[in-house]
Design brief:
four-stranded antiparallel sheet
């Protein structure tokens, strides 16, 4: 009788403890964070200017600038992709992050790494075709596009900053759009 009771208690305890076990979901990765100064056309930007972070042509987050000690500054946390879900919610290890200052792409890019906090000062230009922010559209800008010649959205060599017509490939049309602004200068 005692033995049967002990077995029954053991079975009930085991059943109860197994009922407490639930499916454990994976913890999504920590965000990849960036902070620093922001310049557009070599000048500070107004408070409230938008800085956004893009991966593979998708905007994952944005923030507003503010002024600190005379500089425009930003801080942004780029979420990571939870591999347990079918959706892509953010970056994966090694993804390239394109930063936009308003509608202008920054020269600098970031690399997504879980749990990092990286200082990255951003420089962007509003002059169409001025891809190196020199305030002059010239051969250096054409060469930046040419270096990504025939790269498409799904290629590792693709850089959306040089896809001027935003058609998912870098081709002669993009070079022609830069050349169209040849010799133009800032302000």
């Amino acid at each position: 009788m005692r033995r049967d009771r002990a077995i029954l208690i053991a079975i009930l305890a085991l059943t109860f403890s197994l009922s407490l076990v639930v499916g454990v979901k994976a913890v999504p990765p920590l965000p990849s964070s960036f902070y620093g100064t922001v310049k557009l056309d070599k000048a500070t930007v107004p408070d409230g200017s938008i800085v956004s972070a893009w991966i593979r042509g998708v905007k994952y987050t944005e923030t507003q600038t503010l002024t600190y000690q005379g500089d425009s500054v930003y801080a942004v946390r780029v979420p990571g992709d939870d591999l347990e879900t079918p959706e892509i919610e953010g970056g994966a290890e090694g993804d390239t992050i394109i930063f936009m200052v308003g509608e202008a792409a920054a020269i600098e890019t970031g690399t997504w790494h879980s749990g990092t906090d990286v200082e990255l000062n951003l420089t962007a230009c509003s002059l169409v075709g001025d891809l190196d922010c020199s305030c002059l559209v010239n051969v250096a800008d054409v060469m930046k596009v040419a270096n990504c010649w025939r790269c498409q959205c799904w290629d590792s060599c693709y850089d959306p900053r040089f896809d001027i017509d935003d058609d998912c490939d870098i081709d002669i049309v993009d070079i022609m759009l830069v050349v169209k602004h040849w010799g133009e200068t800032c302000g």
